[in-house]
């Protein structure tokens, strides 16, 4: 008869797991801890980013291309003052302003820029200068803005060519358009025109670039704009009003502010077909 030994208790899952972990060397334990910490940090970043997108203010969820943005509230202006209702003075239909920028040479050496400054507009403008630059004296603007990069490039090209700029009766120059206006060696804004600025915003969605990168890009382009305005002889303080105005509103400059910031001299402008602007210009360095 064979004798039976003392029974051995079977280990449970917890005990086996403990033995398995105990068999690891210190390096393995550190690697596991590191990857666990990395995964946790990644999850926190993802959840925080999702919450950021969900909680973004409605005023930042703006679809680019709306040419007739309302004015930001300005308590210091009498609501009965026509300067408080600048859109009432704009005579161009919104759908026309929403079209990509058109460039047309009209009578009197006036090159008319009308519509949205889409990406690539600067190259189109430069090509037009190469063809007709000798016939141009003034660049007239009627635009709701658009690409900041293209607006800066167009403004530089205007200054390099020695041309004047003007915003005529019933015309709109908003968002990035005032950057083009600033490029003129002489600048004129009609008292019946509307000139407005607001915060810049990226053409790509925040989901594509990330909120931190978008903020960094916005600060960099704001610095470039301030330097550009200073180079053009315009008071960079005008852009403070832009930075304080959400992108679904516009800070419309009063005629006095247009002069105060040296963006132009206010005055009456003949229609583009009648010839280049000759009155109420301000010479710039």
CATH C-level label of the largest domain:
Alpha Beta
CATH superfamily of the largest domain: 2-enoyl-CoA Hydratase, Chain A, domain 1
Q: Strand tally, please?
A: 10
By CATH, the architecture of the largest domain is named Alpha-Beta Complex
Strand content: 5-15%
Largest pleated sheet: 7 strands, mixed
Q: Could you report the average pLDDT, rounded to the nearest whole number?
A: 77
Q: From the alpha carbons, calculate the radius of gyration and give it in angstroms.
A: 30 Å
Structural class by helix and strand composition: alpha/beta
- How would you spell out the order of helices and strands? HHHEEHEHEEHEEHHHEHEE
Shape summary:
globular
Question: How many structural domains are formed by the residues?
Answer: 2
Low-pLDDT sequence parts: 34-64, 266-285
What's the tally of helices? 10
State the end-to-end distance: 117 Å
CATH fold-level label of the largest domain: 2-enoyl-CoA Hydratase, Chain A, domain 1
Portion in helices: 25-40%
């Amino acid at each position: 008869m064979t004798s039976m030994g003392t029974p051995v208790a079977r280990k449970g899952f917890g005990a086996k797991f403990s033995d398995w972990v105990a068999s690891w060397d210190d390096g393995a334990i550190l690697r596991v801890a590191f990857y666990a910490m990395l995964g946790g940090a990644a999850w926190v970043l993802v959840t925080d980013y999702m919450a950021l997108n969900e909680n973004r203010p409605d005023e930042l969820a703006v679809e680019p291309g709306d040419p007739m943005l309302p004015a930001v509230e300005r308590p210091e202006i009498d609501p009965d003052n026509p300067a408080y209702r600048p859109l009432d003075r704009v005579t161009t239909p919104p759908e026309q302003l929403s079209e990509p920028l058109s460039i047309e040479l009209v009578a009197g050496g006036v090159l008319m820029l009308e519509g949205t400054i889409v990406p690539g507009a600067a190259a189109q403008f430069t090509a037009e200068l190469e063809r007709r630059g000798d016939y141009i004296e003034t660049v007239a603007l009627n635009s709701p803005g658009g690409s900041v990069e293209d607006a800066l490039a167009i403004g530089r090209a205007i200054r390099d060519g020695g041309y004047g700029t003007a915003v005529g009766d019933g015309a709109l120059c908003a968002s990035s358009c005032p950057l083009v206006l600033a490029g003129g060696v002489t600048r004129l804004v009609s008292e019946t025109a509307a000139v407005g600025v607001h915060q810049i915003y990226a053409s790509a969605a925040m989901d594509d670039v990330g909120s931190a990168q978008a903020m960094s890009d916005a600060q960099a382009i704001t610095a470039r704009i301030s330097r550009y305005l200073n180079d053009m002889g315009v008071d960079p303080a005008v852009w403070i009003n832009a930075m304080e105005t959400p992108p679904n509103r516009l800070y419309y400059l009063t005629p006095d502010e247009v002069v105060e910031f040296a963006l132009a001299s206010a005055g009456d402008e003949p229609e583009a077909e009648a010839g280049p602007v000759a009155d109420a210009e301000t010479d710039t360095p």
